[in-house]
Amino acid sequence: MKVLFATGGTAGHINPALAVASYIRETNPDAEILFIGTADHMEARLVPNAGFDFRTIDISGFKRSFSPKAITHNLKTVTRIIKSTGESKKIIEDFRPDVAVGFGGYVSGPVLQEAVKLGIPTCIHEQNAYPGITNKTLAKQVDKVMLTVEDAKNHLEINGECVVTGLPVRGELLKADKAEARKELGIPDDKLLVLSFGGSLGAAPLNEAMFPILLDSAESGKYCHIHSVGTNGGEYLEKFEAEGFENGKKGTVEVRQYIDNMDVCMAAADLVIGRAGASSLSEIEAMGKASILIPSPYVAENHQFHNAMALVNRDAGFILEEKDLSGESLSNMIDELLSDTDKLHETEKNAKAMAILNSREKIAEIILSLVK
Prior knowledge:
This protein has 372 residues and is α/β, with parallel strands linked by helices.
């Protein structure tokens, strides 16, 4: 059995595909698995490091601008699309897969389209509540469409079967225990814990709003707080140090550059604050956490807003748009939620109800069901 995966660009596309591919490899040791991506994005590092064969095509996405630089880029993209079609066809004909699956990103487009033309069974997975352009196009052509949340179906024209599968979540998160996590972090029994982060790189607007909140909390000690400024947020670590933080700690507040034990920190948290990427939300749901979501307005199709609203509309989370974000507005939301434990627990319950904990298995089963 041969399975072809096409994905790339961001970890949000690549890591779920790797989770599913790893499960297929575990349960079908004889399966041959090949990934197609680009040479200049993170799939070129992540896929080989996970032990999978990897081939590349030369393709890029379009820029939504009429600047001279964007126009030049888009003209090159047209040329690359034509070239990548031929490259995809050759790789597919050489590998001869039994099934081809796309996990998003523009690299999926030419690969899945060529697979359809060659009569190979195909399927795609959409991570976000508002699908990207590539999956909107492919949904009309492939045999099966898999969705993280039901809401995405409203934005797609689907000719094949559609199944809500959820998004794979790292196993260590599912195994984490709140009591043990709080003990490991040294959180007192009489304190609630807030966890906040803006992704691995950090988010300057969140860091800016969080700065006065963390200073106040460090003095008042009203609750415990762990915050990550991100790898691009080093200047904020210096600002906290100037305010008396030692090794990132002061009172009940800890500020880190990066959270490398997210399973422990999220398990211990009573309230999570962050962006609304698909992977983060799946983790919040899987662990049943109340959250304040601040969607990034800089992503394609404003899809993080739609991701957040999938929780908000089910009373499973709260939204604070970046245009309304300030130290005061965020502080008020935090205080309101932490002072209403009934509301906090109801939100946790609703978030947990959205979780699909066997997502990896469901996706793999659908992929393999297409093998003739």
